[in-house]
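Progress against Task 2.4 (sequence-to-structure conversion) is shown through the following example record, which the project officer requested during the mid-term review.
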Amino acid sequence: MNIIEGQYPFDPPKNAVVTIGTFDGLHFGHQKILKRVTSLANKISGESVVVTFWPHPRFILKPDDDQLKLLSSFDEKATLMSAAGIDHVIKIPFTTEFSRLTSEQFTQKVLVDKINTQHLVIGYDHRFGKNREGGFEYLKANEQRFNFRVEEIPKQEIDDVSVSSTKIRTALQSGDIETASNYLGRHYTISGKVVAGDHIGRTLGFPTANIEVAEKYKLIPADGVYAIRAEVAGQHLNGMMNIGWRPTVNGKKHTIEAHLFKFDEDIYGETLSLFLVRRIRMETKFEGTDALKTQLLKDKATAISILNGL
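Structure tokens generated for the chain above:
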């Protein structure tokens, strides 16, 4: 897949079939849009194109709103789009100046002049341009003038299970991993660099890999113990993870720690990806490390049972 920085000149894709959006999380509804785009591109011997925006528009339009947490970084989105068969991702830098473009200006400058769009696919009730003035009705009324066809994925196709990024965020923030996974069509992922911890887990017989998530805007699910899949250095592993403050050992900071089963290699500095399968329990303060170790043994048995049942 080709990633194109939108501010630079580029050769227009062949018979471009295009969709537009932020696609945070690339959930089940988004996937239906991409499937339609790739299907149409194959049908007309064209190339599939996603036009997306980075940073997320709300970071620019509401810079004081620190409550917004995203389901995916740009790299995570790009990886998912590549897996969906998209040929090109055009990454438009979202700035205050860009936000002032009218729907007419955006359509002409980006979709027509830069991409030479042949077919545009948008999700139900998609809005764009200054003050979100543009939409399907505007595009449909101007098909001949812009010289491309436009279609809208119906509400029942996109929203048949009421999928939305907001509902996914709510599920994750409450620890409801299964609901989030159903909406996403995959397990929610957290990735980060493995950093040094205080090695308390090793003294309990549960060595952990502490990860540091670089993207401060990345949504971290509710505190607790989770059954997980993991990937590091090309290896696929099972394990369990704790998100939280580690109250039993008087933890001083919020951490993400993964205990990987049947694995004890040095992976400091490596990128570790954690795929959340289910939350086992809430984080709890135990009377001491012996009680904590007893619970960790139970957690491990539960995690193994969950993962073996998939």
